[in-house]
Amino acid sequence: MAPDSINLSGRIVENVFLYIAAVSVFLLVLITFLIVYFVIRYHSKRNPQPENIEGNTWLEIVWTIVPTLLVLSMFFYGLKGFQSLRKIPEDAMRVKVIARQWSWVFEYENGLKASELRVPVGKAIALSLTSQDVIHSFYIPAFKVKQDAVPGMTNHLWFKPMETGAHDVLCAEYCGLQHSYMLTKVIVLPEEKFLKWYEEGGKREAVITPSGLKLFEVKGCKACHSIDGTQLVGPTLKGLFGKTVTVVTEGKERQLAADEAYLIKSLLEPNADIVKGFPPIMPSQKGFLSEEEIKRIVQYIQELK
Predict the structure, then answer these.
(1) Rounded to whole angstroms, how far apart are CA atoms 115 and 246?
(2) Is-contact 131 150, C-beta < 8 A?
(3) DSSP conformation letters of the chain
(4) 167 has which bridge partners?
(5) Residues 297, 304 contacting (CB under 8 angstroms)
(6) Average pLDDT estimate for 257-272
(7) Which of 144, 246, 298, 305 has its CA 20 to 30 A from that of 171?
(8) What pTM did the predictor assign?
């Protein structure tokens, strides 16, 4: 199915692209034809004696004005499309998107948080994007929409899915070693099915604090830390609790016991004591995790034997 038929806002990008492509193909054909024509017309066999060909004022005016008008038309067409993409419908459903190395989290207005973006079909979706660490770029190829997620600021993006189905979401800005792992889905559901998921999830979020495992997944911990002993960008958490670890503190090596205090500090001040052999790239979770969430994550790590 064509992308412009599954997402209303994607048609704007599609039309601008087709216009620029059509102009480019026309000019390619025209210039190629003229090159071949002049090679034949002014071949040395037909013109054994070279001639001094003087310029043509009107011709020069035409080939200056016409390309200028074409470029201005591309700019105008693109600007109108950009303005349409920036004008978010008033009835749009709003979702907050938080990017971090190397995962996405989606926060709905009812407090529900998810690692996949679920939306109802036929409804405009307004996304507000920010980043927890470095610059990321939220990109849905099937919908032809993309917007940067930048630390310290909020960017906006909207789309209107017209067909149900699942589509890839990825980061289009190189953001570190696990950049290629930063994948998720936008799942377009029938309205009734979406409302059931949305309401049940919101009620559950309001009365139940997520488990340590759920927080570990939703907060993006699994992107850098394994629970099975595999070494990723960060050290594995399997059997970590109670273990003696070698860290680098202010340039000096020392050994610490991986107790509860160590784990909490690693979440809030991750680069104070850097585990030897690993890069200091973990962002602080201060302000992103509540005390209860920190407690549950620490309890979960303690159970990883």
Answers:
(1) 33
(2) yes
(3) --HHHHBTTHHHHHHHHHHHHHHHHHHHHHHHHHHHHHHHHT-TTT-SS---PPP-HHHHHHHHHHHHHHHHHHHHHHHHHHHHHHS--TTPEEEEEEEETTEEEEEETTS-EESSEEEETT--EEEEEEESSS-EEEEEGGGTEEEEE-BTS-EEEEE-B-S-EEEEEEE-S--STTGGG-EEEEEEE-HHHHHHHHHHHHHHHHH-PPPHHHHHHHTTGGGT--SSS---SS---TT-TT-EEEEEETTEEEEEE--HHHHHHHHHSTTTSEETTS-S-PPP-BTTB-HHHHHHHHHHHHT--
(4) 186
(5) no
(6) 87
(7) 298
(8) 0.65
Average pLDDT over every residue of 42-49: 77
Q: Is the pLDDT of residue 1 over 70?
A: no
Cα-trace Rg, the chain? 28
Q: Which residues pair with 130 in a beta bridge?
A: 98
* pLDDT (mean) for 255-266: 87
What is the pLDDT confidence band of residue 172, given thresholds at 50, 70 and 90? very high
- For residues 39 and 190, is the Cβ–Cβ distance under 8 A? no
